[in-house]
Amino acid sequence: GSPRRLLLVSNSTLRGGGYLGHCQQHIQSFLGETVRRVLFVPYALHDRDAYARRARERFESLGYGLDSIHKSCDPVEAVRKSEAIFVGGGNTFRLLKALYDNSLIQEIRKRVLEDGIPYVGSSAGTNVATISINTTNDMPIVYPPSLQALGLVPFNINPHYLDPDPKSTHMGETREERILQYHEEPNTPPVL
């Protein structure tokens, strides 16, 4: 297949900045001038219309048109016709379940890994680009048929990871400890 083209972002916003403001130059550089329209996957949030409006405003300000897959009567065909895909953040379990429910796992894999179209993921969209969602920080508010994700990269990612604060009085497990527990299980992939 074609070389894989992925831009995987940990979060959509940084304190004091707007939606995708901290990475807008990376998005423009990554998508370049050949991409004209981006297919947005808003499945990680409940209010998909509002989410699509927010993403459309940002992408249009960068010079790209944006179509939201949730408005398509045939999501698989929308993926087949897409020039680039942006999968937004929210709840990773909700997102992965919707990808399975709409038969999009294999189609997105094909378009990205075989056809070489650009894939941008943010937070949950980054989680589902990996082998599995086993290392997400999200609550399982819904149950996808599998925790296996798109497998666009040969590892997992833990978006929003923060190193433990040595001055903290918090006595619960840190993300580092949770990831180490994950690696206690056999055959677990690396986690970035």
UniProtKB/TrEMBL annotation:
Could you tell me the EC number(s) of this protein? 3.4.13.21
Q: Any signal peptide, and if so, which residues?
A: none
**Catalytic activity, reaction form:** Dipeptidase E catalyzes the hydrolysis of dipeptides Asp-|-Xaa. It does not act on peptides with N-terminal Glu, Asn or Gln, nor does it cleave isoaspartyl peptides
SUPFAM superfamilies under this entry? Class I glutamine amidotransferase-like
Keyword Cytoplasm carried by entry: yes
- The answer to whether keyword Hydrolase applies is yes
GO MF terms listed in the record are: dipeptidase activity; serine-type peptidase activity
> What's the short name of a Pfam family annotated to this entry?
Peptidase_S51
Localization, per the record, is: Cytoplasm
Which chain regions cross the lipid bilayer? none
Q: Which UniProt keywords apply?
A: Cytoplasm, Dipeptidase, Hydrolase, Protease, Serine protease
BP terms from Gene Ontology: proteolysis
Q: Name a GO CC annotation attached to this entry.
A: cytoplasm
| Gene3D superfamilies reported for this sequence | 3.40.50.880
According to its UniProt record, this protein's enzyme class is hydrolase
Function, as annotated: Hydrolyzes dipeptides containing N-terminal aspartate residues.
According to its UniProt record, which protein family does this protein belong to?
A: Belongs to the peptidase S51 family.
> PANTHER family from the entry?
ALPHA-ASPARTYL DIPEPTIDASE, PROTEASE S51 ALPHA-ASPARTYL DIPEPTIDASE
Protein name listed in UniProt: dipeptidase E
- Tell me the classification of the organism that encodes this protein: Eukaryota, Metazoa, Chordata, Craniata, Vertebrata
